[in-house]
Amino acid sequence: MGIGTSVNRVKAFEWYEKAAFGGSVAAQCNCGNCLLEGRGVKENVRNAYIWYRKAAKSRYHKAQHMLGYCHEYGVGTLLDIHQAIIWDRRALKNGNVEAKTSLDHIFTFSAFVEF
């Protein structure tokens, strides 16, 4: 349920998008989330990746972590474990604790990482 109103995911995406184009890195990341999951907008993983990248370049740790996720699993971009590590390390450095779990997973289970 929305705060003071009913949930309207389409309208929510429209507002996120307006704020994202206005430069809000949190809104850029939220646009990525909506596009990744098809919430209020048709699913489009390539555009989700683009929004995450835009916010990640502005050092927004949540977007940096999501960019790491995209590279780790090839979502909206080519699978690239080394880029996943780079972005998750940046996210961790900027305070994203979920990035630590992702890095642990990569280093434990990935056959692509050279030690």
Automatic annotation (TrEMBL):
**What is the protein's given name?**
13761_t:CDS:1
UniProt cross-references to SMART domains, sorted A to Z: SEL1
Source superkingdom: Eukaryota
Q: Which InterPro entries match?
A: ISR_Activator (IPR052748), Sel1-like (IPR006597), TPR-like_helical_dom_sf (IPR011990)
